[in-house]
Amino acid sequence: MLLQWWNGIVNWFNSYEGNRVLTDAILPFVAILAAGIIAGLIARGSIKRLIAQQERRFKASAVETLIAAGRKAAAWNNLGAQEKEHVEHQTSEAEVRVRMLPSSGASLAADWAALKLAAMKRNSANYTFQADQDVLDYQDGLIAWHAKPSLAKKLFAQDLAAWKYDGGAVEDQLVTKQREWASQQKTEATPTFQATAAGDRN
User: Fold this and answer.
1) pLDDT tens digits, residue range 6-33?
2) 64: containing domain
């Protein structure tokens, strides 16, 4: 039964009417469908390339702004108030743009850049030859992240963890010093209070 049905279809396609339907209807439909699928794939690829190109341009612009801010941060102590405000505004915008990028490690890159910039600003009054090296390290780090985000992401995470540990140790030392100072002030105040109280009784 199935074989007869198949033979009937084959015979119909081999007939004049079947050949006419095949060449006038089926083949054009298949060709149009294939052309539509291919055009869709090409358009999808073009849109992806365009989006990727725009993302690279936005990323490069944000990285360039952060690098320029790093050069200013190294000489922060010599900048005027108006220039500092302008640099702060540009830096904040660049950090936000970096965080919004879909690239791997974007938030880590923004955190790393913010901490590096803060350190360079703090040290700008005492900078000598070390300033150039710090700016170069900062610049190389951001360029490396722009080129290979996944690799730079690991380095940023290591640096941030080390800074967090060092910062915690410094905070512990400050807390200890504050407690020692408070204890010393309390000890020094106690004899004075006792002497005053004894004088009042007399």
Assistant:
1) 777 777 767 777 677 777 777 788 888 8
2) 22-156
